[in-house]
């Protein structure tokens, strides 16, 4: 039951709620959209939103904002800002409830842990976490707001080059110390758990990796930050984000992976694309376009 508050109390509550930042993480309600890959139950887990200004300094780095605004509005977005989702994927592998990418973490207002609870799982039920790369909006949810392990029984898998990259950043000292006893690295493409394979595509970061869920002839590829904006990253894969560690390699990996996905028609989970972030990539002009999966929709 929701208690009804008198009007004065509601006004007082509004007054102490901090204003939502115009840019950066945007709070959003927890949510889960389940679907299947063959016999494996998976679910898109919502964590947050994210907004960046169209100023040539974050996404579409160095590109004239008027050119970017036209691409954004032609793609159905707002011209003055780049809006992303943030999410993760729950993969109910037999005996191994797994999460691929963990969002921002509750300390930054991320709701992924709450979305996991809505999927009927307790934090200690999760046995494995796979990290695409070590940026805060993918690895942040491995920790609680207090700095402890959010999923205490989970082995945390990532590419060895990504673990080295994470540890090399002084700002990550506490994160690295907390994760160290749980991290298990891999160095090449291949199956890590039955039904789950790693496909590294370094560029955005040194050990950036995509993953593939496979069952009964069906597959789902997780994209990590191979692409950020479904409008800009697909329409103009040559446009770098400030977050691309190696910009030529980031752009090359983006175009190569998108071309591969458009050729194969493989189903994709892209954690920054519009909720629930499942669809396919098609060729469009010199670039690509996103086709949301009609069978995986928010309720
Ligand atoms: Zn990201």
Q: How is this structure best described in words?
A:
This protein is α+β, with helices and mostly antiparallel strands and 299 residues long. It has a domain at 21-225: Metallo-beta-lactamase, Chain A (4-Layer Sandwich). 23% of the residues lie in helices and 30% in strands. The protein is built from 8 helices and 15 strands. The strands form 2 sheets. Strands 1, 2, 3, 4, 5, 6, 7 and 8 form an 8-stranded mixed beta sheet that branches. The two termini are 23 Å apart. 43% of the residues are buried. The structure holds zinc ion. The site of zinc ion has 5 residues, from helix 4.
Summarize the model shown.
With 299 residues, the protein is of the alpha+beta class. The chain is built from 8 helices and 15 strands. The chain is globular, with a radius of gyration of 19 Å.
Sum up the structure in keywords:
299 residues, alpha+beta, Metallo-beta-lactamase, Chain A, eight-stranded mixed sheet, 8 helices, 30% strand, binds zinc ion
